[in-house]
Amino acid sequence: QSTEPWRDFDRLKVYTADLESALHYLLRVELATHSTLEGEELKVFKDFVTLVAKLYPGGGSVVKLMETLCDWLLSLPLQRIPYQAVLDLVDNKMRISGVFLGAELRWVGCQGSRAGLRGYPCSLWTLFHVLTVQHDATPTALENTGLEGEAAPVLQVMRRYIRTFFGCEECGRHFEEAAAGSLERVQSREQQILWLWEQHNNVNYRLAGSLSDDPLFPKAPWPSPSLCSSCHEEKNGVHVWNQDNVLLFLRQHYGASNLSPKYSL
Ligand code: FAD
After folding, report:
1. What is the atom index within ligand 1 of the atom nearest the CA of 158?
2. How far away, in angstroms, is 70 Cα from ligand 1 center?
3. SS3 call for 129
4. 123: in domain
5. Is the interface score ipTM higher than 0.95?
6. Residue 250's domain is classified under what CATH number?
7. In terms of Cα–Cα distance, which of 174, 160, 172 is closest to 45?
8. Number of structural domains the chain divides into
9. For residue 16, how far is its CA from the centre of ligand 1 (angstroms)?
């Protein structure tokens, strides 16, 4: 049983508390398993921070923190950064200037019916869905970052982050296989949104009924007909997705105006 109080939420909303908790966990827990960042790891981390600084919607405290972290990382002539220096920046230096990330995890749309279920992996999916939609809404946001030349920059950074840092190695292997097989075919911002949706559903199909499945949130193709009836069609008695309507739904659901600040700092 979770010791956290249950937080009522609306499945039609996306909660900034989940996105902030994702970054909190990523910076303070996941990264902490790497005592120094160097070479490819450092490059992947810099790209991830740049992506979030440029595409995280709303321009609030999170963006300021990621921008400061980004400027700091890019200004360092070092090939090797101790993790402790990153933590110091996130925990102390930024707090002095009033920019800080919540010091606790607060899951809302990602809360589980007991500890150990949902939480971080749920919030990481959510974060990347938001970033694909925001990249589509603000196509020039990545200019002059070095990422603008990639056909699917959000997915490429996600792929490298998952491969390098994501704690679940099995997940990383599966995601890498999927990316190696089909990511090069993604050539537009719309396809980038839909590719991630499709991969996420492939994982949902694979995990339905498994041990990691929260009984309160059973894995199923998403969005369900109750969330988006026009996303579903039947052709010759077979279920098919209406991809145009799925795209419209994803843009709306993960768009900046559907983010709820409830339970956020
Ligand atoms: P999640 O699947 O985490 O989904 C979070 C929320 O996203 C849902 O509540 C829903 O609102 C929304 N959502 C659901 N489906 C979609 C979709 N298709 N498109 C857009 N939004 C959607 N676990 C494993 O055991 N094996 C794996 O191989 C594995 N691979 C993973 C790969 C990645 C890249 C990530 C980030 C996680 C992976 N996981 C894997 C974890 C797993 O996918 C779930 O995140 C975890 O089990 C928690 O599930 P959840 O019920 O919170 O829903």
Report:
1. 34
2. 28
3. helix
4. yes
5. yes
6. 1.20.120.310
7. 160
8. 1
9. 17
